[in-house]
Amino acid sequence: MASTKSRNRKIPYTRRMQYEEEDDLDELDANDITISVPGSAKPPCPKPNGFDVIKDGNEDLSLSITSKLLKCCCGNRCWKITESYDKSKFPHPFRFFDLFATIGSILFFFYDVVTDVFLAHNYYSLKRWTEFGFTTAFIVFPMLVINLKSLRWYHLDYNREKGNGYTSCIVWFLRVIFTFPLMIGPVVRHIEYLYHGCKSRSASLKDTDRKNHYKQMLHEDTDAGMMRMLEAFLESAPQLVLQMYIILTETPDDGLLMSIIRPVSMVGSWIGVSWSLVSYHKALRASHNEEEIGLSLCGTIFYYIWRACEVGPRVVVLALFASQFQFYMLIAVAVHWAAMSIWVALQKPEFYKKTIDKIVFDIVIGYVLIFCFQNVQSGHTRYRAMLYYFVIYAENLAMLVAWQYITTQKSEWYYFAALGIIPGGIVIHIVVQLLYYKCCHPRSMDIVCCINPVQNYNCYQSVCHEIKTNEESKADTGAYNGQTFDV
């Protein structure tokens, strides 16, 4: 559904405004969905070994598996199979992979939080008050922020629905209670996504009801992804740096239990940060309701490896540098944060109108750019990414060399491991990222390997401005409402 305004396909920080624009133009009637049989009849069984084919001709194995599982488990009586949908209206139906990934996100959320709490409790038992204080702070503060933010979103949704009776009072009560004070707002978002996803595939509902649940599923998926990513960068990433710093600087004998809990907690934080980027990226693409830009299962795997190899070495080198240059590490991070925030401001992202909101947005994205790349502007991404990764790789190698020169712990097990992880992570990250864009990107066939850096000053404009449209760049960026956006 075309919107009257152009939308950035990278980060919908305007949240649900884009959906509201679509709702104003969308008439919810029986014509929204094309059904191959009457509503009272049993939906047709899928063809033997038949796969759902997306617009670029590739076979979507996940949708096929979903249809076959539903046929075996429900006999197509409870769930509407994908072959019955008009994919122009339902380009991203709820799949088995979505169910599995969402349950995994919920489990990893609890895994990350519980292991961190257990770690803080052990620091308290060992009377290591400094470690206990910082570990606890990196648990409590992010939880307060993300759950209050989720509560704020519920307040906005409540005002939007006020008087319409879309949601019962008991549902609003449960949302508030589980978000604050129980502090599991991201889990509530994931559960609501599962609920609406299942309802959008229900064969017992009317067409208009399925359409409404489908839209709400996209809402909740984006909200849950934003919540998880916010939690990851406020809690998991700092926690990972902190625990690695403690390992490098402290050598007390804390016992076997502590030597197990801490690595388990660190692995959970690393997985949490990497997966939060994947789930948000996947939700963002689905939210645009266009089949050709959805993320496939293969693309999800490559994107996860890309992000894991980007975040992991960065966290390791920050902890290594901090172990030898405590105060100078804080200065280096602060300078990087300020520089990235200014860079974001120069790109002039148009997500907010108020000046204070723009400043806060620039600062928040600048903080995220301490750990990994995040695009905030339309146009070709490659030159912005190349500039960012050049800076990040230079910082990583410089901090590694400085640590290697100063450290006296060259006989420790982690010395040679660090010398291999940082450069090795850079190489793997570059290779996997290139493979993703060449083989797994939703529009990999349209991506031009080389762009003329002189024509229309593409390189300069891409670094700090939106690239103007031209015929040669449309194949790489994709057209939308008369403008081009990088996908």
UniProtKB/TrEMBL annotation:
Domain of life: Eukaryota
Transmembrane segments: 96-120, 132-151, 163-184, 260-280, 327-346, 358-376, 388-406, 413-437
Pfam family name, one: XK-related
Descriptive protein name: XK-related protein
Keywords, comma-separated and alphabetical: Cell membrane, Membrane, Transmembrane, Transmembrane helix
CC per GO annotation: plasma membrane
Homology family: Belongs to the XK family.
Subcellular location: Cell membrane; Membrane
Topology within the bilayer: Multi-pass membrane protein
InterPro entries: XK-rel, XK-related_scramblase
Organism: Mytilus coruscus
